[in-house]
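Human: Can I borrow your eye for a moment on a structure tokenisation matter? Separate attempts, laid side by side, tell us more than any discussion would. Could you pick a protein and write out its sequence and tokenised fold? No explanation is needed for now; the record alone will do.

Assistant:
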Amino acid sequence: MDAFYASVEQRDHPELRGRPVAVGGARERGVVAAASYEARQFGVRSAMPSATALRKCPELVFVPPRFAAYKEVSRQIRAIFAEYTPLIEPVSLDEAYLDVTLNLKQMDSATQIAREIRARILAETGLTASAGISYNKFLAKLASDYRKPNGQFVVRPAQGLAFVEGLAVGQFHGVGPVTAARMNELGIFTGADLRAQTVAFLHQHFGKVGRYYFAIARGEDERPVVADRLRKSMGSETTFGQDLHEFADLLEALQPLLEDVWEYCQRSGIRGRTVTLKVKFGDFQQITRSRSGVGLVPGPEVLARICRELVEGLFPLEKGVRLLGVTLSNLSNAQEGAGRQLTLSF
């Protein structure tokens, strides 16, 4: 989807259309969750501090996020996908991979399928989407960004290698800013530069993921589209307007995070064995504290108790807390783990 959160807000609030919009908090420590294309023209990007965004675009309009609305639109879009293929791998609320090799409408052209899905999304939600079509996930992901907004791009098998070699490594999905900078230090700036390296060289400098870099530099990606993929973790976090120092204040701030995590558990039927508390202090030092059990966390009361004990372990505090986060990991279906849920060794 194109600028998904911001586009939903502009759709639902006509007075925002054509204006630079950021979804997120306008407070001093707020962060941009999404930016409209009008805001992006000023250099405003997601994950940017709100103060920085306002300096770049003084006319920027901040809108608080409405995740319930975004989830509802996401469900509409997934329903459209499901009319074309059962092989849908969600990546986030606004992105998914679809394998349409054998599609439910028996259409011969993936390009036509993408065009029809995009038209359906626009007609039914009033929002635009972009698509990438190719013979593997890596190339489809790259192609999806190539004609944004409201466009699509095809990378055919005969074009894959040439398409990759001309791109900067920072554009590759799976190569973040830190890794891209490291590659640049090694003289690797483009896909062609990356393809010139041996597996041994890439493994030496990047570890196990080096083999993945070796493959994608050749336009190769064997990962299948996996429907109903189980998430590795689920979590929620928040940044405070002012640093917190008191135990009671931290517990109060923890409550909405616990509710977010457990709401996902209830909706999905998924439970977790490991509870992790993320803490960022006022000086930006970040730590995590985790606790795992042999059984699944059975309910919100147990989750709250574990998190309370993890918070207690932080005291006495030497400095204020800027951010708190709660994550559940080691996930599995609640029914699969039902026989072990009652035994918790923490």
Q: What stands out?
A: The mean pLDDT is 91. The longest helix spans residues 247-268. The two ends are 42 Å apart (CA to CA). The chain has four domains: 4-65, 68-158, 159-216, 233-340.
